[in-house]
Design goal:
mainly alpha, 588 residues, 63% helix, single chain
Amino acid sequence: MSTNDENFDRRTEEEKKSGPIFEKIDELSSDSEDESVYGAIAGKLNIPDDWPPLAAHPPKKYYFWQINGPGNIDLDGIATQASVFDDPEKARLHQPTEKYENLHRLDPRERWTWREEIKLVRKIDLRIMVWVAFMFMALQLDRGNISQAVADNMLTDLGFSTNVFNNGNSIFKAVFLVSEVPSQLISKKLGPDRWIPIQMVLWSAVAMSQYGLQSKSGFYITRALLGALEGGFIADVCLYLSYFYTAIELPVRLAYFWAALTLSDICAAFMGFGILHMRGVHGKEGWRWLFLIEGGVTLVVGLLSVLIMPPSPTKTASWIRGKNGWFTEREEKIIVNRVLRDDPNKGDMHNRQALNFRMLWDSLCDFDLWPIYLIGLVFGMPSSPVGTYLTLTFRGLGFTTLQTTLLVLPQQLLSLVTLLAITYLSQMTNERSYMGILAQLMHLGFMIPLRIFSQSTNRWVRYSIVSLFLASPSTHAIQVGWTSRNSNTVRTRTLSAAMYNMFCQLSGIISSYIYRADDKPLYHRGNSDILGILAMNLVIYAGVKVYYVARNKRRERKWKAFTEEERRHYLLTTTDKGNKRLDFRFAH
């Protein structure tokens, strides 16, 4: 078989049916012709008689406070889910590339219990997810402290107008947007475990340099550099997490990821409260010390990430992580086999394998993902201008700089609760579009009074409604997991996360011009625009739901029209990949 990465997808059928893993399957199953039907798999599986039994049911949903998992399962029962790897004939079509870094731990006969799986997922959460969340908190410190700096009169100190501030934000978001795909390409070549720490160290240096800001050009340059270096971070992390988690687990972990953003905002509020008191130290303004100190925190986290982030589940051994690594051989086998059983396409590429132009073009042209990209463009538009101008709004209500810093805390705490709540609700109901509609309706309910309020409205009433509007649930985590789920290949997943985030950043650029200087302080014209956008979003979420349901029904009709022999022939000979396969169904 050719080992050239660019030729991997051009293997002949004979090459696809060869390789060490499937020679092992042939040896184990040569005398077996038994056939069993599993609801989780499209079609039938020819499972050998002498292979160990599989799980009696799909994974049960459980939550982080349920330490021992759901209470309605036998913890010592088999947890291994049925997959194409249990059918030697179908498994040949999903052979991982010889360069796949975890190939030596793939064993189709491997079985484990629910007790082992739940304990291991907790361990992955502790070892991987906690540090990823910590890195995101560091990102948010440098990305979000501009609002605190503005609340500390940075614009006045530098002689900047509101429009200069808007232009700086637009530059940041525009460069952030265009750097998404290049960052993903670099990450796929170097590996997220290498590229993410490099990003953090570089942007922390730029963040600290804002201590010396003096001119408008300097402000624009630092905004551009921060956008270039921070762009792609979120998509890189999503790709990294997919190495350790299954499709059903990823959205909840992404909710934890964005919960870290809220926790970062809360910590930043307290840090800012103290740091901004340093105004006058060495004759410098408090916001200068804010940029310097919080940038230094990110630098430390970035340097530690070089040592802490393992490249894959089977390569965790190092001098700092221990000579035996974080996971035992048994645990490595469970991680690799459960991830590949959930999505065999994760073995298509090495985690340090670059994408070629054809792969890039095919991913960008995947029209079935563009409905989610459209959602990424519009869902955050209503809250973005309100959030951007939050500190200025509170200052306009008569609150001091330090009061403003503390008054954002209730909204941030409540948004943390609503984020986790709507993500868990999505997991419980297996619904995504309806969750988006629910979130937009809640925003709509609080935007109507904001449009009606006048200057005479009590400032605490205005403060409360603005806070509740921003605390309405975000479906961002759900939609990132949705994008990953509907990608169905490593190639597409690598680019789709970046594409989705690009549309989110484009949304931020557009929404930054909803609130204008001639519309303040109540922004009635801007709030009218937001009401229109919210109404549009309700239609878009419903339309995306209809689109994916229709796509699934069409494929189902074609699939049911096939005879069993035609289905088997399709699975053996099709050149369709990822979400273009007839046996793939879109989440909606």
